[in-house]
From TrEMBL:
The keyword Oxidoreductase applies. Residues 33-123 form the ABM domain. Pfam families: ABM. This is Antibiotic biosynthesis monooxygenase family protein. GO terms for molecular function: monooxygenase activity.
Protein backbone atom coordinates (compact mmCIF):
# COMPACT_ATOMS: atom_id res chain seq x y z
CA UNK A 1 0.00 0.00 0.00
CA UNK A 2 1.34 3.41 -0.95
CA UNK A 3 1.56 5.96 1.91
CA UNK A 4 -0.71 8.97 1.56
CA UNK A 5 0.98 12.20 0.55
CA UNK A 6 0.50 15.05 3.01
CA UNK A 7 -2.13 17.52 1.93
CA UNK A 8 -1.18 21.13 1.29
CA UNK A 9 -3.27 24.27 1.10
CA UNK A 10 -3.51 26.11 -2.20
CA UNK A 11 -5.48 29.32 -1.84
CA UNK A 12 -7.17 27.96 1.28
CA UNK A 13 -8.28 24.72 -0.46
CA UNK A 14 -6.87 21.35 0.58
CA UNK A 15 -5.14 19.48 -2.23
CA UNK A 16 -3.11 16.31 -2.40
CA UNK A 17 -0.42 17.93 -4.56
CA UNK A 18 3.16 17.62 -3.39
CA UNK A 19 4.74 20.80 -2.04
CA UNK A 20 6.88 22.75 -4.52
CA UNK A 21 10.09 21.80 -2.71
CA UNK A 22 9.19 18.09 -2.59
CA UNK A 23 11.71 15.79 -4.24
CA UNK A 24 10.57 12.37 -5.42
CA UNK A 25 12.47 9.49 -3.85
CA UNK A 26 15.58 8.42 -5.71
CA UNK A 27 15.10 5.26 -7.73
CA UNK A 28 16.46 2.14 -6.10
CA UNK A 29 19.78 1.37 -7.75
CA UNK A 30 19.98 -1.97 -9.47
CA UNK A 31 23.09 -3.82 -8.36
CA UNK A 32 25.47 -4.68 -11.16
CA UNK A 33 25.66 -8.20 -12.47
CA UNK A 34 29.09 -9.58 -11.57
CA UNK A 35 30.56 -11.98 -14.10
CA UNK A 36 33.58 -14.24 -13.76
CA UNK A 37 34.96 -16.43 -16.52
CA UNK A 38 37.78 -18.78 -15.47
CA UNK A 39 39.86 -19.87 -18.44
CA UNK A 40 42.62 -22.48 -18.55
CA UNK A 41 45.00 -21.88 -21.44
CA UNK A 42 47.54 -24.10 -23.08
CA UNK A 43 50.79 -22.76 -21.58
CA UNK A 44 52.32 -22.28 -25.05
CA UNK A 45 49.31 -20.13 -26.11
CA UNK A 46 49.01 -17.89 -23.03
CA UNK A 47 51.00 -15.10 -24.70
CA UNK A 48 48.60 -15.21 -27.66
CA UNK A 49 45.65 -14.68 -25.34
CA UNK A 50 47.36 -11.84 -23.45
CA UNK A 51 48.05 -10.03 -26.74
CA UNK A 52 44.45 -10.57 -27.83
CA UNK A 53 43.09 -9.33 -24.49
CA UNK A 54 45.34 -6.23 -24.54
CA UNK A 55 43.87 -5.32 -27.93
CA UNK A 56 40.24 -6.14 -27.05
CA UNK A 57 40.14 -4.85 -23.45
CA UNK A 58 39.39 -1.18 -24.19
CA UNK A 59 36.57 -2.14 -26.57
CA UNK A 60 35.09 -4.63 -24.11
CA UNK A 61 35.28 -2.08 -21.28
CA UNK A 62 33.52 0.46 -23.53
CA UNK A 63 30.68 -1.93 -24.43
CA UNK A 64 27.25 -0.57 -23.46
CA UNK A 65 26.45 -1.68 -19.93
CA UNK A 66 30.01 -2.68 -18.95
CA UNK A 67 30.93 -0.85 -15.74
CA UNK A 68 34.21 -2.58 -14.89
CA UNK A 69 36.64 -5.13 -16.32
CA UNK A 70 39.63 -6.92 -14.76
CA UNK A 71 41.87 -9.84 -15.69
CA UNK A 72 43.19 -12.02 -12.86
CA UNK A 73 45.95 -14.63 -12.82
CA UNK A 74 45.60 -17.72 -10.64
CA UNK A 75 48.02 -17.67 -7.69
CA UNK A 76 49.30 -21.20 -8.40
CA UNK A 77 48.72 -21.75 -12.11
CA UNK A 78 49.87 -18.89 -14.37
CA UNK A 79 48.03 -20.35 -17.36
CA UNK A 80 44.67 -20.03 -15.53
CA UNK A 81 43.15 -16.58 -15.92
CA UNK A 82 39.81 -15.14 -14.86
CA UNK A 83 37.98 -12.17 -16.26
CA UNK A 84 35.93 -10.24 -13.71
CA UNK A 85 33.39 -7.75 -15.00
CA UNK A 86 30.44 -5.68 -13.77
CA UNK A 87 27.43 -5.24 -16.06
CA UNK A 88 24.38 -2.99 -15.70
CA UNK A 89 22.14 -6.05 -16.12
CA UNK A 90 21.89 -9.54 -17.54
CA UNK A 91 20.40 -7.94 -20.66
CA UNK A 92 23.51 -5.76 -21.07
CA UNK A 93 25.76 -8.81 -20.74
CA UNK A 94 23.61 -10.76 -23.20
CA UNK A 95 23.75 -7.87 -25.71
CA UNK A 96 27.55 -7.88 -25.45
CA UNK A 97 27.63 -11.65 -25.91
CA UNK A 98 25.60 -11.22 -29.13
CA UNK A 99 27.95 -8.49 -30.43
CA UNK A 100 30.46 -8.86 -33.25
CA UNK A 101 33.20 -7.92 -30.77
CA UNK A 102 32.39 -10.88 -28.52
CA UNK A 103 31.90 -13.34 -31.40
CA UNK A 104 35.21 -12.37 -33.01
CA UNK A 105 37.19 -12.29 -29.76
CA UNK A 106 35.72 -15.58 -28.53
CA UNK A 107 36.41 -17.26 -31.87
CA UNK A 108 40.10 -16.34 -31.50
CA UNK A 109 40.17 -17.31 -27.79
CA UNK A 110 38.55 -20.76 -27.93
CA UNK A 111 41.42 -22.54 -29.75
CA UNK A 112 43.81 -21.39 -27.00
CA UNK A 113 42.03 -23.29 -24.19
CA UNK A 114 43.46 -26.37 -22.48
CA UNK A 115 40.08 -26.97 -20.75
CA UNK A 116 36.54 -25.62 -21.11
CA UNK A 117 35.99 -22.20 -19.51
CA UNK A 118 33.75 -21.85 -16.46
CA UNK A 119 31.49 -18.78 -16.27
CA UNK A 120 29.39 -17.54 -13.37
CA UNK A 121 27.05 -14.56 -13.02
CA UNK A 122 26.12 -13.30 -9.57
CA UNK A 123 25.00 -10.29 -7.54
CA UNK A 124 26.95 -8.91 -4.57
CA UNK A 125 25.09 -9.42 -1.31
CA UNK A 126 27.65 -7.95 1.09
CA UNK A 127 31.07 -6.32 1.04
CA UNK A 128 33.51 -5.10 3.67
CA UNK A 129 32.21 -1.52 3.45
CA UNK A 130 28.80 -2.62 4.66
Amino acid sequence: MRPARPQTRAGGVATDAAPADHQPPAPIATPPLLRTVRMTFRPDRLGDFLALFREARPRIAAAPGCRHLELWEDARFPNVLTTFSHWDSADALDAYRRSDLFRETWAETKPLFAAPPVAHSQFRMWNSEG
